[in-house]
Every structure is written in C-alpha cells, then in structure tokens.
Write a structure and sequence with these properties.
By secondary structure, chain B is mainly alpha-helical. In chain B, 69% of the residues lie in helices and 3% in strands. Chain B has one domain. Chain B starts with a helix and ends in a 12-residue tail after the last helix. In chain C, α3 packs parallel to α5. The two termini of chain C are 32 Å apart. Classes of the chains: A mainly alpha, B mainly alpha, C alpha/beta. Chains in contact: A-B, A-C. At the A-B interface, α5, α11 and α13 of A face α4, α8 and α10 of B.
C-alpha cells in the first residue's frame, strides 16, 4: 500500500476514535467538518478537476438538505428513502441546471450558476407553506436508529468516507483523467475525440449528487434548514474552502474545510470580526499560496504524492 | 387593481432606483469591459460612498451646500480608495487566473464590510436631503419627493456626460480601444498599467457617487453592499457586460421590475428578477445590447 | 479520395476568409498548403476539422459528409490534427498527454472505477518512442522546450490513429536542424502508417522537399495546385510569393 494510503488509514482510524474523547465539542466539530469536506470535494470535481468555476454550488447542498428534511418530517418518509431522494434530486437538478450552464464559458458560466442558485434561494425564501420561508424549517429530528450525536457522527463518517472513496476512484479513472484534459485545454480535448460538453455535464451531475448528500447530512445534523444555506455567500464559502486546502489535490478541500471551520469556531468565540479575518486570510492565500495548503505541502514534501 | 396614480408613483420609484443602479452598474461594467474583472467589491464601494457622505455632512455641518460638497468629497474618496486597491493589490493578480481575481474582490467585500462596521457600528444612518430639494412634488394626486425627481433627471445627464467623454476625450478613446482589444494596447504605446488604474478610479467613483446620492433616500446600513451588488450583476447581465447603453437599459428594466413586480406578483417577484437574469444568459448571453459572443 | 472540399466559403463579419475553395486529396498523398500570412490556411483547417462551421460548401471524408459535424466526431472518423500554437495539456506529464488521447481513441474514456495509470501503457510508450520523447515521459509537459512540445503535439495527434493528418505549421519556430529532424520523423511515420498528410508551412525547402502536391492559397482562394515543379514555375505564385520562405 502506498505511503499516501497509509496516512489515509491513520486518519480514518483517528476519526473512528474521536468520540472516545467524550467531548461533545469534538464530535460536533468532526461531523461538521466531514459534511463540509464532502461538500467541498464535490465542488472541486468541477473546480479543480474540470476547470469549471461554479458560483452556485450551494444550490445542490440546499436542495439535498431541504429534500431530506421535508420528506422525513412532512411526508413521514423513512430516512433511507429520504436520504436517497435527496441525492437523486440533487443529481437531477444538477443535470438540468448544468445543461444550460455548460453552454457558456468563464464568467458567463459563473453568472448563470449564480442566477440559478438565487432562483432556488428565492423559492426557498418565499415558499412559506413548503419550506417555512425565511423562518426556516425546524424541528428535524435524528432518524430512528441514529438518535445520538455519537451515532450520527459515525453515520456521517461512514457516508462521507464511502462517498470520498467513490469520488476518488472516479477522479483517478479514465473519466477523471479526461476531465483534467478538459480543464487544461478544452479545444484540444475535442480533437482527441471527446464530446467535451457531455463530460462536463456528467461531472456536473456527479458533483450535484454528492453536494446534495452532504446537504442531507447537514439538515439533520443541524436539526433545521434555513434558506441562508442557499444564499450566494454559502457558495463563495465552499469555494474558499477548496482553494484554502488546494484545488489540485483530492483531499485539499477537506483540509480546507477542516481549517476554515475550526478557525471560524475559535475566532467567533472571541470576536465578532470573523469576516475581516476571513477576508485577510483569503487575500493572503490568493497572493502567496495559490496552491492552497496541500499545494504548499506538496511543494515542500514531494513524497506526499496526491493525484492530479 | 391599484389606481393609476399609485402605479405611476411606484414606477417613478423604480426609475429613481434605476438611476442608482445605473451608477454602480456602469462602473462595474466599465471595469469588466476593460480589466476583465467582475468586481464583487463594487457594492462595498457604493456603501462606503454612502457612509462617507454621512461623515462629510457631519463635518461640513451648517456649511452652505454641505450635502453637495459631501457628495463630491465622498465619491472622490471612494474613487481614490478604488484606485489604491487596484494599484497596490489587484494589479499583482492580473497574471493569475480569473478565479483568483474574483475571489480577491470577494475578500475585499468581507474586509470593507467589517471596516465599515468597526468605524460606524451596526446602526442605521440617514442623511437629510439638501435644503433646496427638501419638498415634494404633486404628481396626479400623490406626492413624490423632489429630490428623487431630480435624481431621475440627473441620471441620464450623468450618463450622457460619461458617454460624451468616452467618445470625445483622449482618455475616452483609450478606454474604448482597451475595450476592443486589451492585448493590442501596449503596442499602441499606451501605458496599460496607468490606464487600468484610471479605469478603476472612474468605476469606483461612479459607485461612490451612487452611494453618496442614495444616502438621503435609503437607510445607510450594513448589508447594503451585498444587496446592491447582486442587483448590479443582474443589470449588467441583462444589459450586456461591457455595454454602456446596455447598462442604462438594464437598470431601467430592473428598476421597474422591482417597483412594479411587487404589485403584480408579490410572491414571485423575488425569484422573477433572477429568472430574468437566467433567461438572458440562456437565450442571449451577451445581453440586450452587448456584443454577440463567438458561441 | 480521402478528403473532399467543395466550394467552401467562410466569412467573418463581412470579411471573406475562404472564398470558394475546392480540392480533393487521394489516400496516401503528401500534400502541402502554402500561402502568405492571412491567406486563410488555419481557417481552412478549422473548417475541415469542424472547429468552425462553414457558411457554404461541402466537406467529405472517406466519402462521408462531414459538413457541420462537431470536432470530436470528425476526429473519431479518422482525422488527426496538430495546431499552430502548441496545444497540449500543460499540467499533465508527457505520458499522460498521450495516454489521454489513446484512452479517448480506444473508447475507454467513460470508465469510472479503474485506476487510469494502468491503461494502455504499451501503446502510449510506443507512440512516445516514435516521436522521440521516450525519455521525457514523466516530465510535466508544460516545462518542456518548445520543440519537444511540438513533438508531443504530434504524438497526441498520432494517438488517435488517424488516416488523414492535418499539421498546421509543424516546424514553426524551429531551427534548421530541428526542422529537418521533425520533417524526417513525420515523413517516416507517414510512410510506415500509410497516412495521408496535409500540412501548412512557411519553410519552402521543407515544402518542396517532401510534398507530392502543393496547393497555394491566397486571399481565401486556391490560385495554384499541382506538383512542386509546376507550382514553382507558376507566375502567379511567384508574384504572390516574392521572396517568401527560406
């Protein structure tokens, strides 16, 4: 087994042992990081691997969260089904939205993803009867067999680990390799016989499915769903997480999510000025560490590998 | 069915709002057209224009024409701030991919918003209208603030002045050349760095002016930056990124949709403006008056 | 006839770039397209490969109508191409560049769950050797010198196992020695694989040494066509080409 896989195994073991610390704080933080780590990795399939800058990834996270929570609480749908439906709906909406977005490039692509995300946000915000509007949808309980923080943590760990395992396989597969050629040079990729738009759409759909899964996990974890998870700063935040960790490394976005969430938690307990700290950190990152943390580490310790 | 005078009043409100949108959006469009950067922080510059106006008005208290002096000083301060940001920070990111430039402007949004909170707190401010324009005008059977009416006429005047400057002055010509072909510029002997800073200065000035002029009309609060930037994006998308008259047209459309949409379909009005934005991007991505893209 | 071009026209905003060009190329021929800058050579290539839609006219490849078809379909039918400005995948290694093209060609691009590194190692290695990049396989392609990048580009084009190879200025920016080496390599591959070659060039020595047929494009029209000797002595060509090339 490669050095990288040994490190991964170590991390997974550490994560499994986390609840042994008997700390509610760590279990809470751990669940949060796992959820947003998956969300960020799903975005990075588009951003780092396919070269598509989406400004509306929160759409699928939100759709996943609302779908799962609403189905469970309002329609009494059993959790496994609601969860699966969330992922499916995320994929379907990504397919539809993606179909229109990939016809555009660069800033126009970004603007259309933003427009769609705002449309979904506006719907969640105003559709009081369905979503509770801006008061949010509250009182979402843990599912029957996962009715404790620790149990839900292990469930999240399992789902996220499984999802990342799948995504990593996809990224290291021929399909994933072609995505990187699309990122590098879409015109050339056309002329090695690849229907570029089709590949972009499939990537879009896959990333939507996993973002929705992360969202579904979140809705229950948070015991409530508010429209602000669909509002555009949420999309900006997950972009920042990916960039912070490093977009050219598979686990970069997880690292970024972990650091962002941890630092935010610490900072907000001392001061209200988290936004300005985030702003300066982001600016600092953009100027001096464009490859993110993993990019920096890989430069220093080449043995860390990290598939492209 | 609301009566006609009420509708007219709403429409006029929409026009007023459109003029403010036009000021920010044209700055945004100009910066995008020349520098290729979509400046998220443009709403923040607008907000600072309002805050600075409030500050300068308190400074110039009891001076004649205090409001207008405050507007001038505030908008120029914002312009200088914008130019400084471009000169010392943004410039170093030009070689990088667009994502980095975009996210830097987002970082600015975070920083400037907090900066405003630190200095002015989280409360609301308002600036009183200049003495000359304090009254209201009777239109049909409703009263409409004189100040707002003046803004409605001032808007197109500023637009025409700007357009004229673009057409006739040396800087205007350079800017138009830059919009057509950025790469050619340095071979034409134009100092590209200086041009970019000037463009950013002008764009920021427009935003600051918008914020300054809106200060008597709208509450100066944290959050006005985020609210306005999205609307500015919608305006430039509908009108056409980089098109001057497109921005004007886009502002008018968005202004009216906001003002009248609430009356016609109150629940859908929030989503409607974004649907419009999406439709334009899907059907005609270069906007109503923009230059058609290659694909 | 492997490639048929019939009365093809293309305008940009009123400027007529290609004005009714017609020609056909038989299988196995080595044909070059020459003309001064701005004559429309790259535009013509873009029309043939589907990167640009033509306004009028018909394009056929192996008797199949390819007019208006998207690039990836035309590539799949058997047309390979290199581009004027180096068109590679900079952040991927040399090996990965070629492997991607092989993957696409062999129809394995929609595979999701097997690790990509194990695919087509032999085939990729063979192509690398053929274009002389064997020892550079693990280098990041963006860091290669210009000449090697051009060789890589040729490798990518060959990986699609084309029957017709379109090369847009394959020796642009190369030294005399590099040009000779490259053209020798290209000629050798063409012979071995029985390819049909259509290339554009500014270097007249190259053009006249290996072409079996030369076509001259000027202001969007073909003004001459034929064997090297005929073309060289064509008065119109001489007028257009005063002093061009080496």
């Amino acid at each position: 087994m490669s050095k990288e896989n040994w490190i991964l195994l170590l991390f997974v073991l550490l994560l499994i042992c986390l609840p042994l610390t008997e700390s509610r704080f760590y279990v809470f933080l751990g669940t949060d990081i796992l959820i947003f780590g998956l969300f960020a990795v799903s975005l990075n399939l588009l951003l780092g691997y396919t070269g598509l800058v989406s400004f509306g990834h929160a759409t699928y996270f939100g759709i996943g969260a609302y779908t799962c929570a609403l189905l469970m609480k309002k329609a009494s749908v059993p959790f496994p089904l609601a969860f699966a439906a969330a992922g499916a709906l995320g994929g379907i909406s990504a397919l539809i939205i993606g179909f229109f977005c990939i016809r555009l490039t660069k800033v126009y692509f970004a603007m259309l993803t933003l427009a769609f995300s705002q449309i979904v946000w506006a719907m969640a915000f105003k559709w009081n009867s369905l979503t509770g509007g801006d008061n949010g949808f509250v009182g979402v309980p843990f599912p029957q067999f996962l009715d404790s923080n620790v149990r839900y943590y292990y469930f999240t760990l399992g789902v996220v680990a499984g999802s990342l395992f799948l995504l990593r396989k996809v990224v290291n597969s021929p399909f994933g390799r072609i995505l990187t050629t699309i990122r590098e040079n879409p015109e050339r990729t056309k002329f090695i016989g690849i229907h570029v738009k089709l590949f972009q759409l499939v990537a879009f759909m896959i990333s939507g499915i996993f973002a929705a899964i992360a969202g579904a996990l979140f809705g229950i974890f948070n015991h409530s769903v508010f429209p602000d998870i669909l509002f555009w700063p949420a999309s900006a935040e997950v972009l920042i997480m990916s960039l912070l960790g490093g977009i050219y490394n598979f686990f970069g976005p997880v690292v970024g999510a972990a650091i962002l969430l941890f630092v935010r938690m610490q900072v907000t307990s001392y001061t209200e000025h988290w936004p300005v700290i985030l702003g300066f950190t982001l600016a600092f990152l953009l100027f001096f560490f464009p490859g993110g943390i993993m990019g920096f580490l890989q430069g220093r310790f080449p043995g860390l590998g990290g598939k492209r | 069915m609301p009566d006609p005078s009420f509708l007219l009043l709403q429409s006029l409100n929409g026009l007023t709002y459109a003029m403010f949108l036009f000021l920010i959006a044209s700055g945004l469009s100009l910066i995008f057209g020349i520098l290729g950067i979509l400046n998220f922080a443009h709403g923040s510059l607008y907000m600072l224009g309002a805050y600075f106006t409030h500050q300068f008005v308190s400074l110039f208290i009891d001076a004649p024409g205090q409001f207008w002096w405050a507007v001038i000083f505030a908008s120029l301060t914002v312009a200088a701030l914008g130019a400084a940001i471009e000169r010392f920070f943004l410039r170093h990111l030009y070689a990088r991919e667009e994502l980095y430039q975009l996210l830097f402007t987002y970082a600015l949004v975070l920083i400037l918003a907090d900066f405003a909170k630190v200095i002015w707190g989280t409360g609301q401010f308002s600036v009183s209208r200049p003495a000359l324009l304090k009254g209201a005008v009777l239109i049909l059977d409703q009263y409409f603030p004189t100040y707002n009416l003046v803004i409605i006429f001032l808007g197109p005047c500023i637009a025409f002045t700007f357009w004229f400057a673009l057409l006739r002055t040396r800087w205007g010509r350079k800017i138009r050349a830059a919009a057509l072909d950025r790469e050619m510029l340095s071979s034409l002997g134009i100092n590209v760095n200086r041009l970019f800073t000037v463009v950013f200065f002008i764009g920021a000035w427009m935003a600051g002016l918008g914020g300054a002029l809106v200060s008597p009309v709208s509450a100066i609060v944290p959050g006005m930056d985020v609210e306005v930037i999205i609307n500015a994006f919608i305006v430039v998308v509908i009108g056409g990124l980089g098109s001057f008259w497109g921005t004007f047209l886009g502002s008018l459309i968005v202004g009216q949709v906001y003002a009248l949409g609430i009356l016609v379909f109150p629940r859908l009005s929030l989503a409607f403006i974004y649907v419009l934005m999406a439709l334009v991007l899907i059907i005609r991505p270069w906007g109503l008056l923009g230059r058609p893209l290659q694909r | 006839m492997i490639l048929g071009v019939e009365k093809v026209k293309k305008s940009f905003d009123g400027f007529v770039a290609i004005n009714g060009v017609s020609f056909s190329i038989p299988k196995g021929e080595i044909c070059s397209l020459i003309g001064p800058n701005g004559a429309g050579k790259t535009t013509l290539f873009n029309l043939i490969t589907g990167h640009l839609p033509s306004d009028e006219g018909k394009l056929t490849f192996k008797d199949v109508d390819i007019t208006g078809r998207p690039p990836h379909q035309i590539c799949r039918l058997g047309v390979g191409r290199s581009f004027q400005r180096t068109n590679i995948f900079p952040r991927l290694t040399v090996f990965q560049n070629i492997q991607a093209a092989v993957l696409a060609h062999r129809g394995k691009s929609f595979t999701f769950f097997r690790p990509v590194d194990s695919f087509f190692q032999e085939e990729t290695g063979e192509i690398l050797e053929r274009v002389g990049l064997g020892e550079y396989a693990q280098m990041v392609s963006g860091s290669l010198s210009y000449g090697f990048q051009k060789q890589l580009e040729l490798g990518i084009a060959l990986a699609s196992e084309p029957e017709l190879l379109l090369l847009d200025e394959p020796t642009a920016g190369m030294s005399v020695q590099e040009t000779h080496q490259t053209m020798e390599m290209i000629a050798k591959i063409t012979r071995e694989k029985g390819l049909t070659l259509l290339f554009t060039e500014h270097d007249m020595e190259v053009v006249f040494s290996i072409s079996q047929r030369i076509m001259v494009l000027y202001q969007g029209r073909l003004i001459a066509e034929g064997m090297p000797g005929e073309v060289r002595n064509n008065p119109e060509v001489q007028k257009v080409y005063l002093g061009e090339g080496r």
